Amino acid sequence: MNPAVPSYRAGLYAAFPLIAYFLSWYYNGQTIPLLAVTSMVLMVWGALVWWPRLGDGLAWPRGFLPIFMLLWLLWFGLTLFWSGSPYTSWFYFWVLGALPLTFLISVMIPAPVAEQAWAWFWRGILLSAWILSGMALWQYYHWMGRGVGLSGLRPYGPLLDTNSFAAWLNLLFFPILAVYLIDDEKRRTRFGSLQLNMVGLLYLATLTVILLAFFSTNSRGGLLAWVCTMPFVFWAFGRRPGGWARMAVITAVALISFSLLGYPQGYDLLGHLAPGFITHNLSTVARGLMWVATWHMFLSHPWMGTGLGSYFLNYPAYRLPGELASAGTYAHNDYLEYLAEGGLINLGFLLGFAATLMYALYRLLYRAGKSLQVPDERRLQALGLVLGVFAVTGHALGNFIFYNLPLSLLAGLFLARAWRIYGVQADTAPLLPRIGIHHEFIAQALLVLAVVAASWNLAADGATFALLSENGWLNRLITNANQRAVFLLKAADALTLVRPLATQPHVYLANTYLRLADRGNQPDIAQRRSLVKAALSQYRQSLVGIPQQSGVWNSIGTLYLEQGALLGLDKAQQDRLALLAWRKGLAINPESVGLRNKIAQLAYVDQGHVGEGIAFLSAGLQRPLFSYPRSNLQMEIALTQWRAGEKHAMEATLLQLLRANPAYTPAVSWLQSIHRQTAKEAAISH
Q1: C-alpha angle 8/12/14, rounded to 5°?
Q2: Which superkingdom does the taxonomy of this entry point to (predicted)?
Q3: Which residues, in sequence order, are bridge partners of residue 427?
Q4: Which residues pair with 61 in a beta bridge?
Q5: CA dist 175 to 170, 214, 352, 385, 454, Å?
Q6: How far is the C-alpha of 336 from the C-alpha of 347, rounded, in Å?
Q7: Are 627 and 661 in contact (CB under 8 A)?
């Protein structure tokens, strides 16, 4: 330890990324406060690391990778300015940007404390491996005890997707495997000797529980990534003294783990890898259809894409009729999703990242003796870290991997550690004086300003979620409903000022203004008009951050139809503006049964064009609709036919509905009432 560097700094440099890593587990693209706190912790960590660097003029690490990561992070930031959904892209900037951000912070840690900080961080990684494996095995056996079917017996740990969880276990497995093999190579006692190597046993036990957890996920993509990465391990470690014996032990542990965890599932994972199964498997076919739709999305926005994280907003308009197996949240292929969301440049960065990993493997495996002036032990440690990131990067071809915050964060940390081992040459001369900045406090002030501004927005986003999305906790603090409503109204109003791009506060205010305008004890027409105008303004403001909100367009159309008179509109203008808003909403989400029915009734049925209205409704059946929405749409068609006096057509529609969905209760009840009425009329006539 360099005496000039305080000893506590290594603990700080390890604590911050560990805290961020553990906080990120349950984010899952939904719990915004976790993303906000995780990102703020990373920024504080970055400020601690970068502050002295900036004070010394910013000496930059030589080499390609730090520059590449800086450009990648800057690119993610630039995409926010032309994103079609800037508010959504803001969150995914932190998720996807966690990889280059953590890398850039890690490689800037001063060399005297970097090793000690990594030692502490590594202990946290080992702990996380045990926790995650324990989660998986508990879920597996708990669900098995509850009689969950084989298709559902797939643990996902703290994530929402079992394949992404399998990738996470792969990311942990290979670095730990490398450390174990290095440690076991130092062992001087026979394997059967009573002189136990406790450290080696700990690593072997950790690998065993990871493999048990990994095979419990029954993930095809995870298994293929594991199988494709293991040959590099055999190549690097098998040729070393005693290497094949150690590899035999690992192979035996893997086979035993697969045998134990695959047995309750009937080893169906092997069948899932068969070409015939893959070509007919619903989830695999759905992936292919999603990739075609994603390609169409790219062709519609070929240069800059739709914006980071906007896939789920745009996908409903591109979903193909045969794809009804996914929620449409992610493309299940990070490369294609990068292409659709950020265009060719975005994909180029991800491909460049993959190419960098391949080159790192080449250097660590084939040029080790020629170009790397590092001991074999450290070289193999770096190899294990690179292999872990390599496995998940390959897995990203068939699943969404880097859209999971803990995986993105950990990949950046692992690659930074590997680069510090094999890629560090030296730092450049201080850059700030060379570009004309001779007062380093200017750069430090800009760093503080960036951290404060980003944290301000993240804190506002977390508060928006906590107050307006998941606010059940508030009921215990403010028990009076009226007081709670007033507090939330004031909070929403403040949030619209603090965070103008946030959509939810605007929608909350708009809905509140409409409720106040609709109160029966509101006789003041001028005040009602002001409330309706304010509601309309808030709805429109909510579309600035995320324009693809079919629900908001639905509300705007309903406002024009029901409150248009207060705005000075005649009936024709009300209908025209309502239809325009509803059609915009339907264009965003062609699967919306409610919007399609509203348009059909107002544009056709109410004008006496019943046949055209039924045709418009029936056209919705050509869209990819899940079972229950399809039944709802068929029910609306039947109701329209009934009102038009087309009884036989109505009964045919209901029968068609029930053939596809026999458990649809409204149709059953309606048919029964019709038959009872028919029987009663027949009895009276006789």
Answers
A1: 120
A2: Bacteria
A3: 61
A4: 427
A5: 9, 15, 22, 5, 33
A6: 8
A7: yes
Residue tagged 């036989």 (tokens) = 648
Q: Positive or negative, the Cα torsion across 574, 577, 580, 586? A: negative
For 624-668, the pLDDT digits (tens) are: 988 899 999 999 999 998 888 888 888 889 889 988 888 888 888
Of residues 618, 611, 586, the one with CA closest to residue 599: 586
Tokens 């879920």 appear where? 139
CA pair distance 395, 382, nearest whole angstrom: 20
Predicted structure pTM score: 0.92
* Cα–Cα distance, 510 to 519 (Å, whole number): 15
User: Residue 595: which of 623, 628, 558 has the closest Cα?
Assistant: 558
Q: Return the C-alpha torsion angle 581, 583, 585, 590, nearest 10.
A: 170
Q: To which residue do tokens 């896939």 refer?
A: 311
What is the spatial distance between Cα 560 and Cα 545, in angstroms, rounded to a whole number? 22
Assess contact for 314 and 546: CB atoms under 8 A.
no
**75 alpha carbon, distance to own chain's centre:** 19
Cα 52 from Cα 54, distance rounded (Å): 5
Locate 674 and state its tokens: 């019709």
Query: Are residues 601 and 644 in contact, defined by beta-carbon separation less than 8 angstroms?
Result: no
C-alpha to C-alpha distance for 568 and 556, rounded to whole angstroms: 16
Span 420-446, average pLDDT:
82
Among 221, 122, 119, 209, residue whose Cα is nearest residue 166: 221
Kindly tell me the burial class for residue 374, based on how many C-beta atoms sit within 10 Å of its own C-beta (0-12, 13-18, 19 or more): middle
**Residue 574: how many CB atoms within 10 A of its CB?**
20
Spatial separation of the C-alpha atoms in residues 133 and 317, rounded to whole Å = 39
